[in-house]
Specification:
The chain has about 425 residues and is an alpha/beta fold. The protein contains 13 helices and 13 strands. The chain has helices at about 35-45, 110-125, 125-145, 190-200, 225-235, 245-250, 265-275, 290-300, 315-330, 360-365, 375-385, 390-400, 410-429, and strands spanning about 1-10, 15-20, 25, 60-70, 70-80, 85, 100, 205-215, 235-245, 255-260, 280-285, 310, 335. The protein starts with a strand and ends with a helix.
Length: about 425
């Protein structure tokens, strides 16, 4: 499934990378970017063009990328009409994935039946069958071009070199019709359509489906949300759900909570605060999404995984405000910042990546460094490959696998332990 999504110059995001889990629950105020993430994936998988009104800077292209199985695929939309202009290589490796987007408004249930049917066909079609169809497409265009009488098209002794390239997309050839007995699905009541939508999603196993549901409380019954979300997680390979509802948040099953931020975080704080309705936990706030796996690993090694919610705060500028707001609700927070912030109680090293063991950096990034750099600048200069890696990619790769290499004797563990102990002593006083 999708490990991360990269969005540039689209709606809320000037440039943003979001790390994803198998099941994800996005919370945040209006205009914080929740819907933007779901729409960006819909564009990547299902559209060839972007409406110009959604482009932040019309002088720049829109870029949308996803990481699947450690491979990054990026599409670029540019020109006056923002059509798809750059397509990544090996895109056919994603052919069996199907992204289905349920927007916040009324959804066409008949369309959902067709989308799920397409997903099921893709899942039931072997890679060998797909490759045979691609070869037949290429052989057919080659046959047509080879049949051209070259003597008839030579002009001024200039022989045109004509090459055909198959652009076969199996999904585009799949069409279904849905016929009901006596009354159209669209004419049935909203309650019936909601029940049918739910029944459709959980009726089969769809391991190759990525499902985006915007404001799930508008599509399904909130009163039955715990059972609904649990069933969706069981039946769908990957889910991205947005919500404004405390009931949904507390019925999240095993979904990873991903908060998105704007300047005024009040309603977001209220949602986060509602997490304590079911478990009495304190908060650990980290700067960004790449820090999350590091701190989860450290807290787990310290035996405190069940004591804290670990939340990415959307950057250093948000973290203090978020902490202050949560404290005003009576919550207890520990802030963990990189050392380059020069803040009190921050980590000792300039960036969290500097705590990675040398063997981990070499293994994950396929390098052969002899010594671990001692500062942030040298670290990224040593690990970035021009035209291949940037800082975000380095951070993402290390964060993804770091739990395999961090042990209890890592200096990061002692520092996290000290920060937790200091805060716990303060709370007692």
């Amino acid at each position: 499934m999708i490990q991360s999504i990269y969005i540039k110059n689209f709606k809320m995001f000037e440039r943003k990378t979001i790390i994803l889990d198998n099941h994800n629950l996005f919370i945040g105020e209006n205009d914080s970017g929740k819907t933007t993430i779901l729409q960006a994936l819909d564009i990547f998988f299902n559209q060839e063009k972007i409406d110009k009104i959604f482009v932040r800077n019309i002088k720049e292209p829109v870029e949308i990328g996803i990481e699947v199985n450690d491979i990054f695929y990026k599409k670029v939309y540019s020109g006056t009409s923002y059509k798809l202009t750059e397509i990544p290589e090996n895109l056919e490796s994603l052919d069996k994935l199907k992204y289905i987007y349920i927007p916040a408004g009324k959804y066409d249930v008949k369309q959902m039946i067709q989308e799920l049917a397409i997903a099921k066909v893709l899942e039931n079609t072997s890679e060998e069958e797909l490759e045979n169809l691609r070869k037949k497409s290429q052989n057919s265009i080659d046959e047509v071009i080879n049949g051209i009488d070259r003597d008839l098209i030579v002009l001024a002794n200039d022989e045109a070199n004509i090459v055909g390239e198959q652009k076969f997309k199996y999904e585009a050839s799949l069409k279904f019709d849905v016929i009901t007995d006596g009354i159209s699905i669209e004419a049935r009541g909203l309650g019936y359509q909601k029940n049918l939508l739910y029944a459709l999603i959980i009726g089969n196993q769809y391991n190759n489906v990525i499902l985006g549901i915007d404001e799930i409380e508008n599509s399904f019954s909130v009163n039955n949300s715990r059972n609904i979300i649990k069933k969706i997680h069981e039946k769908i390979g990957q889910t991205l759900i947005t919500t404004h509802s405390k009931k949904i948040l507390n019925a999240r099953d095993n979904a990873t909570v991903i908060p998105l931020f704007v300047n005024n975080n009040t309603s977001l704080i209220e949602l986060l605060e509602s997490l304590d309705d079911t478990n009495n936990k304190d908060y650990i706030l980290v700067e960004g999404p790449y820090d999350l796996n590091w701190i989860k690993t450290a807290v787990s090694l310290l035996g405190k995984a069940n004591d804290y919610y670990i939340i990415p705060s959307g950057g250093c500028s948000n973290i203090s405000h978020l902490s202050n707001e949560l404290v005003s609700y009576g919550k207890k927070c520990i802030i963990i910042r990189d050392g380059d912030t020069k803040k009190e109680k921050s980590l000792k090293r300039e960036c969290i990546e500097l705590y990675a063991p040398l063997n981990a950096v070499n293994k994950i990034l396929e390098l052969d460094l002899k010594n671990m750099p001692s500062n942030k600048k040298d670290f990224f200069e040593s690990t970035m490959i021009p035209g291949v890696r940037n800082q975000d990619l380095v951070k993402r790769k290390i964060s993804k696998d770091i739990s395999k290499y961090i042990t209890i004797d890592n200096p990061l563990i002692d520092e996290i332990k000290d920060l937790i102990n200091v805060k716990e002593r303060e709370n007692k006083n």
